[in-house]
Amino acid sequence: QVQLVESGGGLVQAGGSLRLSCAASGRTFSNYAMAMGWFRQAPGKEREFVAAHSYSDGYTSYRNSVKGRFTISRDNAKNTVYLQMNSLKPEDTAVYYCAAKTGSGTYYVDQYAYWGQGTQVTVSS
After folding, report:
1. Cα–Cα distance measured from residue 57 to residue 35, given in angstroms and rounded to the nearest whole number
2. What is the 8-class DSSP label of residue 14?
3. How buried is 105 (Cβ within 10 angstroms: 0-12 exposed, 13-18 middle, 19+ buried)?
4. Looking at residues 57-77, what average pLDDT do you find?
5. How far is CA 40 from CA 12, 61, 97, 119, in A?
6. pLDDT tens, position by position, 27-58
7. SS3 annotation, 48-98
8. For the segment 4-13, what is each residue's pLDDT rounded down to a tens digit?
9. Parallel, antiparallel, or unpaired: how do β-strands 70-75 and 48-54 relate?
10. Quick check: 75 and 84 in contact, CB under 8 A?
11. Residue 75, number of CB atoms within 10 A of its CB
């Protein structure tokens, strides 16, 4: 199994930056075969894709509204995936979740088997 713990959320003014971290534990993360994704959910809205990366095939994808502002990266030696968020906007306010799956990355929420507990990001105008 895989356990995921997010951190790094908080309150920031519009235009600011945050870096989210997702620490993974469990046997499957260390074999470089796990795809990692970031999703977010605002109050009253469905959970939506933000970014994903799979090391095995180099797959990287971003939601259109965050392209050029957010960057997903991973440090396999530390079993950690990051989401660097720059030029934050009030519409980025949400609970951000880290997720993992075997195989290639994807933007489909339902294909991720493992989820963290989420971290709140609030962007003030």
Report:
1. 10
2. T
3. buried
4. 93
5. 16, 15, 6, 9
6. 655 556 789 999 999 999 999 999 999 988 88
7. EEEEEEECCCCEEEECHHHCCCEEEEEECCCCEEEEEECCCCHHHCEEEEE
8. 999 999 999 9
9. unpaired
10. no
11. 10
Do the Cβ atoms of 99 and 48 come closer than 8 Å?
A: no
Q: Which residue type is seen at 81?
A: V
Compute the residue count for the chain: 125
- Nearest CA to 93 out of 44, 57, 60 is that of 44
In the numeric block, the tokens 């502002």 are attached to 69
Residue whose token pair is 């908080």? 10
CA–CA separation, 93 vs 76, rounded Å?
Answer: 28
Say which DSSP state 118 is in: -
Tokens of 27: 């046997």
Nearest to 98 by CA among 85, 83, 112, 116: 116
| Joined tokens for residue 50 | 């933000």
